[in-house]
Each structure stands twice: as C-alpha cells, then as structure tokens.
UniProtKB/TrEMBL annotation:
It comes from Stichopus japonicus (Sea cucumber). One of its GO terms (biological process) is protein O-linked glycosylation. Pathway: Protein modification; protein glycosylation. The lineage of its organism: Eukaryota, Metazoa, Echinodermata, Eleutherozoa, Echinozoa. It catalyses: 3-O-(N-acetyl-beta-D-glucosaminyl-(1->4)-alpha-D-mannosyl)-L-threonyl-[protein] + UDP-N-acetyl-alpha-D-galactosamine = 3-O-[beta-D-GalNAc-(1->3)-beta-D-GlcNAc-(1->4)-alpha-D-Man]-L-Thr-[protein] + UDP + H(+). Its EC number is 2.4.1.313. One of its GO terms (cellular component) is Golgi membrane. This is UDP-GalNAc:beta-1,3-N-acetylgalactosaminyltransferase 2.
Length: 539
C-alpha cells in the first residue's frame, strides 16, 4: 500500500538527517534545503515499514522531481545534474516580463527533465534616482549643482605657473569630447592661439560635432583675416545658439581647412575643465583620424586634446534649481521604491524558485559581469552540457531547439551556436559606445535573441571571471573573451536577431509581453508561433 509520510515535528526531521548523513557528508546541507522547501507531503512509501534505503530512494526521486519546488537537485549529491541550462537575463523590476515567460515557453520547458531554466538577476538595485544619473545605462550620480546658473562658462581654462612654460605641438584634428547631463546652450567656439593673429598662416575649422548622429551641428573658421575675439589664450567666435539636450554626446573638433591633418601649438600650462556644476562631463579619450589610426586613446594628459574650446550657458535655470532642491526627496522616494522591488522580488523567488541572484548592481553597463557571475554560479552548482542565454523580451522555440539538437551531432566541447554578426563596427558613442577595445571591428558575436555555449566554454569564462575585462555589452564581450580560444562557431540564421517571425525559428527578439503571449498561443494551437491556419499542425 502507498502511504504519504508527513514529517510533523523536529525529532522526526533530525532522525531523517542522521540517517542521511551516515552515507553522505553532503546530505547535511541537502537535508536543510529539503526541510526549507517543505519536504512534507512529497515523500511517499511503498511499504508500511520504512527502511533506510527506501528513504534514500524516495529522496533521490524527490530531488529529481520536476514538480518539486527545488527541482533538478539530486539531494543525495550536492549538485544539479541536467543536460541543458537556459539562462534568461532580466532586470530586477521586470516582473511582468518574467511572468509572461513562465506563462509561455519558459514554463513549458520547465516540465522537460533535460532542461533547467533560470532567470538571471543582479542582487542590488542602483540606489541613485534615474533622473540623477550621468547615464541611463549606469549608476554613476550626476551630482548637479546650480553654482553657474545665468553665467557664461568657458569650458577650458589655462593657468600658468611660470612664463617659461613651453607650449606643446599636437597633431590635428584635435577634439574635446563631452556629455551633457542637463541642457546647455552653445554660445561660442574657440581656438587656442597664443601669438599674434597676424602670424596665423593657415585657416582653421572649428566645429561642434554630434557624435551619436555623426553630423556637424555648427562650425566657424579662424584665419589671420578673420581671427575672432581674443579671450585669454583663446580666440572665440559666436555661433548660432543651439540647445544641447540631456545625454547629448559631442565634440568640439579643430582641423586645418582643406587638409586631413596638421599641427598646432597648444598650452603647456595647467588646464582646468569647467563643468558648470556637473551639467557636463568630459571624456578622457580621443581618436586619431582614420588615415593614422582609429584606436581610442585614453588620455592622462589633457593638453593634447584641447586645441579647441567652447562657451556655454545653462538652459532652464529654474528647472535646474528645482532638480537640485528635490535631490534628497527624489532619492528617498527611489529608495522606498527599491525596497518595494526587493520585497516583491524575494516573494517572487520564494514562490517560483527560478531566479539566480548574482552579486552585481543591476544596470545595463554591468551585463557582462552579470553573465560572468552566472557562469560562475553554474560552474559551482551544476553539471551540464550546454548553456543557452537569452533575454526576457525573447521568444524561444524550445520544441525546435530540442528537435535540432536531437537530429544534429553536436560536439560536446568548444562550440558556440547562434546567429553571428561579422565585422561589426565598434561604436564610439551612445548606448553601445566602446572606449576600450582597440579595433575598428568586433570579433564574430552571436546576436542577443539567443545562443548556446558548450559547458567547457562556460567553465573557462567562470575560471577567468576576475580578469576578463568588461566591454560595453555582454554579447560583444563574450566574442572578445572567446576569440582567445577560438571556439567552433555554428552559424544559424534561425536565431532571429529581431522581432521577425519564422515557423522554423529557434528564437526571436524584441517582443512585448502581449506579443510573447500571442506567439505562445499560436504555437500551442498549431505549432507555428507566427500564425495558425486550417492546414497548420505541430510537426
């Protein structure tokens, strides 16, 4: 007769603990996990009188039961043991997105004994209110102040400790690059010129360049016949006023007119960069022009960057005053909201047990580290063959993925399966700005809808996670990291990189919650996530 055993008191729990630890040292922690996740009611006997082996047998079954709260764990051992792991990158407050996946392909796949599925979440929120960050992609505070309201600010100021200090000859083009954190108005553009304007033998073009859109905003010319107005060590000319919005990234560029490159003598004194109360920040890097190099150069001595200059006003001074006054209040409101997110996330994970929290502040810029730490967690806790990575706005066709794996002889090592982008240009500005990778193009990388790594590649990144540099995104970072060991690239266009749909697709990206729901409804009805017709059927 089959009866259910209900563990009703601590004495019975400790009896079970003692029985288990006689055979396996690791069962102490396993036992604690079992009791923590409500063993009561899961263990059943096939005879009225229990034996030690029966306990162990049923505990193994419990650990392998996909319906158990802590599924895929072999409770007699200390590790998970599955063939395939699916990791879904998701933000802490993306509750609706995660639930839409649980209600569709993610939840469906959890019933398959070959698979383990986990959401990957950073264990910390950025506690700086989004309005007070330097970038929407990171967590660095802008620290705005109103010290320069209604004052015209000169971006570059020169101080000399001695008249004997020598100027420095630097190559042109030269640029001063900056990012806007509160709107400003460009008033004037300037050129360094210490000597008499009559000694200017070339015409110099100074222009404001929109780095993100790669276009000139406004420009002026300096020559001996039209030198502009001298102010300190710079010549300035007024320009049509342009309001540069928050998050604008631009450069003031100096180059000789009609020539690709040249030289200009620039200050040998000490340069001070004025931020106007942190309404702008400067980027300590520059790029040589293509005819010499296209490599980013991190500049420790800014004197080689600022042959140009500009003057600006703060736009919306009353708005800035209000922003600064509201700083403490906004941060407190945000802290309260993050406490709510933390509590809700804990409740969600307690209910579903499908979230891995990794030790990182959960921002876009930290995605490479987030992936590395998940790889570390996998290596420490799971025996597996393959890892699939995707995002919470993606639809994965688990049926097609498993069908492909079943009919294809996949190598078990050194394999990367995805839809690869080749010779993809390195962007220097915007959301995907890369300031540290010294090349004009990335190595081949899989697009973000989904891709698969064999376990050995995952373990290699996990082993080296402390020394691998984090580049601007997790997909290109993975490409750069793995290029050192040359994986076997399996290029498959059925990992669709955008929201397009194909009946044979393995995954597609950039979907709303409602689109995920409809794709799943279609697949359940006829096996075609794109649409159903009378002729459609699951193959």
């Amino acid at each position: 007769m089959t009866i259910a055993l209900h563990i009703t008191n601590d004495n019975m729990l400790y009896t079970l603990k003692n029985a288990l630890t006689k055979t396996n040292d690791s069962t102490d922690s396993c036992f604690n996990r079992i009791s923590q996740f409500r063993l009561r009611g899961y263990i059943k006997a096939t005879q009225t009188e229990w034996t030690r082996s029966a306990w162990l047998t049923d505990l193994v079954k419990y650990g392998q039961d996909t319906n158990a709260p802590y599924s895929k764990r072999n409770c007699i051992g200390s590790r998970f043991d599955v063939e395939i792991v699916v990791g879904v990158l998701t933000a802490r407050d993306n509750f609706e997105e995660r639930q839409s996946l649980r209600d569709s392909w993610f939840g469906f796949a959890q019933s398959n004994e070959r698979l383990m599925l986990k959401f990957i979440v950073g264990n910390e929120d950025c506690l700086t209110h989004p309005e007070y960050r330097r970038s929407p992609y990171g967590c660095t505070p802008s620290n705005l102040s109103y010290e320069n309201i209604d004052k015209e600010v000169m971006a570059v100021n020169i101080s000399r400790t001695s008249q004997e200090e020598k100027d420095v000859a630097v190559p042109l083009p030269s640029r001063i690059s900056f990012q806007v954190h509160h709107p400003i108005i460009i008033q004037k553009l300037g050129l360094y010129w210490r000597g008499a304007s009559s000694s200017m033998t070339s015409t110099y073009q100074v222009y404001l360049f929109d780095d993100m859109n790669e276009e000139t905003v406004v420009q002026v010319m300096f020559s001996s016949s039209s030198p502009g107005v001298s102010l300190g060590d710079y010549l300035f000319k007024p320009v049509e006023s342009f309001i540069l919005p928050k998050d604008f990234q631009g450069s003031v560029v100096v180059k000789p007119l009609g020539e690709d490159y040249g030289w200009l003598v620039t200050p040998g004194g000490s340069l001070t960069l004025e931020t106007g109360g942190n309404v702008i920040s400067y980027m300590q890097y520059r790029w040589d022009e293509p005819q010499t190099s296209n490599l980013p150069i991190i500049s420790e001595d800014v004197s080689d960057m600022f042959a140009g200059n500009f003057m600006f006003l703060i736009h919306g001074s009353e708005e800035l005053l209000e922003i600064v006054k509201q700083t403490d209040k906004k941060h407190q409101e945000w802290s309260t909201e993050m406490d709510r997110v933390q509590k809700r996330l804990q409740e969600e994970n307690k209910k579903h047990r499908d979230i891995v929290l990794v030790d990182v502040v959960d921002t876009y810029q930290n995605l490479p580290l987030k992936v590395l730490l998940f790889h570390k967690w996998l290596t420490d806790n799971v025996d597996f063959k393959y890892l699939f990575k995707t995002d919470d706005d993606c639809f994965m066709n688990i049926h097609n993925i498993l069908k492909t794996i079943n009919k294809t002889t996949f190598p078990e090592s050194n394999v990367w399966w995805g839809n690869f982008r080749y010779n993809w240009a390195v962007q220097r500005h915007g959301k995907w700005a890369e300031h540290h990778y010294p090349s004009t193009a990335y190595p081949a990388f899989a697009c973000g809808s989904g891709n698969m790594l064999s376990a050995d590649l995952v373990k290699w990144t996990a082993k080296n996670y402390r020394v691998l540099h984090q580049y601007q995104g997790e997909d290109v970072s993975m490409a750069i990291w793995l290029s050192a060991i040359l994986p076997n690239y399996l290029d498959d266009k059925m990992w669709i990189c955008d929201e397009k749909c194909d009946q044979n697709m393995l995954a597609s990206a950039e979907h709303s919650v409602d689109e995920i729901k409809q794709l799943w409804i279609n697949w359940k009805e006829c096996g075609n996530p794109c649409e159903c017709s009378a002729q459609s059927q699951i193959k």
